[in-house]
Amino acid sequence: MIAEFEELENEEVELLLQAPLLVSILIAGADGKIDNSELHEAVSLAKLKQTKARKDLIEYYSEVSEDFEDKLKFLINNLPMGPEARNTKIVQELAKLSDILPKLPAHFARELFASLKDFAKKIAEASGGILGYMSVGYEESKYIELKMIKNPSNS
Description:
The chain has helices at 10-28, 36-52, 58-64, 68-78, 83-95, 97-100, 106-125, 138-141. By secondary structure, it is mostly helical. Helix 1 runs antiparallel to helix 5. The two termini are 26 Å apart.
């Protein structure tokens, strides 16, 4: 178990471990369709963050990235099919992090929130712009800052 999670309830740990998956699906599906380039970016990013994440988050991403693609597909299949209902459900789940992050060591909570925002940005950039890079669509831009989660730096 991740040391920073020792004082949390099982449901809280589960949500923290699902957060990159939920962010991936939210951003990838923001425009109504989840395309393969965005899913591929999410899987690649999860693997990359095992070694390239902020030092405090390496253990977290090692656990998160395990079977990431399978977990992603499972979640997609178990969320509402329509984009509006799916996005609403994901936003509600991610908003619960606002109550969980303050229970974590402050530095870890700040790093995790910043990392999730980075995750969102990279997925949003995966399918837009020139040759598919470096552009964020309007629908994705509504979610990319993860405003449904209270920034732990402001606590």
